[in-house]
Predict the structure.
Amino acid sequence: MARSEGTGWAAAQLDDLGDGPGFRKIRKELGVTAFGINAIVLPAGLWTNRHFHERQEETYFVHRGTLEFEFGDGERVRLDAGGVVRVDASTVRRIGNVGEEDAVYVIVGGADGYVGRDGRMPEGEQRGVTQG
């Protein structure tokens, strides 16, 4: 599927957002405005630079591979596909691919708090799960 969009939505395959290792600019490509979101393809054996943020808390989701997160206090956490970690803005961190294949992870970042539960049903529709 190539990138597609309609009124109020946009979709793309991660592979359509870039080639090789590095950033996949999800926010820019899909027009996300409420928070930052990117994916990174990190080759086996490589580590990112240590960094922190001034305001932005981040949550990392491991889509594929095995990553190790190293924090400023020296602690390390190893996560496989499906793993999730939240990091405060001021916490120094770096991420390493400790697996044997490219790892893919998604980073969501934001500041200024949680919006809360604001989902609503269109008028005349009722909650529940339906068959496609």
